[in-house]
Amino acid sequence: MDKNQPIEKVKLDNIKNIIIIASGKGGVGKSTVAVGLAMSLAAEGYATGLLDADIYGPSIPMLFNLQDERPIVTERDGKPRMQPIVKFGIKLMSIGFFVEPGQAVLWRGPMASNGLSQLVNDTDWGELDYLIIDTPPGTGDIHITLLQKYFIAGGIIVTTPQQVALYDVRKAIAMFNSEYVAVNIFGVVENMSWFTPSKHPDEKYYLFGKGGGELLSQEFGIPLLSQIPLNEKLCDSCDAGKLYEFFADNAVKSAFNQLVKGIIKN
Question: How far, in Å, CA of 261 to CA of 186, rounded?
Fold first, then answer.
């Protein structure tokens, strides 16, 4: 990043709040958190969009069981306008809607950034209260494009409890706090905090350790917004694209309600 080059951010007037879901670490469940947050906001009556910014590994089409869907592309004022796919009241956009399942996206960094900008700018989002952006692992071109190019209301940092996750998550927090970015962090979400079998709701098994989210909260002075438990129903609903079962477990539903309250408070 060139500190001598001024940063000119784009304000999308039709979108009130853009929230970035990030981690720095793969496999912590960023997409699950992004989906749960979007569904919870939509259930509260907020006009909500969800953008899959993971150019190389898009998962939103699979999670919503929309692998075969293709957005309608129209033209307005000589420019293409993509109509988002709508499901559960959420407006969805992903590069995964434009490639065949299993097809690799072989783009270098600048091309990926340009493709991402097109997904943001050329999608006909309409009026949104919230646009949730699910980002890939790391702190690379995709993140820099979003954080430097657009007015971002804030970021949510996703981690799991174990130390190996915290090592990379700290880098994502440093990215948001960088003087070249300086985007507010709403707080930390600890995903997979414990495993509770659906048939034994009073039992907790800390499969991935304990206290990672609280440690980050204390270390960086940012709120721990929610701890999301793990159970077999949540896993099955995501793998099978049955998101209507996403909140079948009351503990999971409560965790996302708590996250929504933290976002609205910010």
Answer: 11
Eight-state DSSP code of residue 236: H
- The CA angle 115-65-161, to the nearest 5 degrees, is 80
Cβ atoms of 174 and 147 within 8 Å: the answer is no
Domain architecture of the chain: domains with CATH: 15-265 (3.40.50.300)
CB 48 within 8 A of CB 129: yes
Determine the residue type at 134: D
Q: What is the pLDDT along the chain (266 residues), one digit of tens a residue?
A: 455 555 568 888 899 999 999 998 888 999 999 999 999 999 999 999 999 999 888 999 999 999 999 999 988 887 889 999 999 999 999 999 988 777 777 778 788 888 999 999 999 999 999 999 999 988 889 999 999 899 999 999 999 998 888 988 999 999 999 888 889 999 999 999 999 888 888 889 999 989 999 999 999 999 999 999 998 877 777 777 778 788 888 888 999 999 999 998 87
Whole-model pTM: value is: 0.92
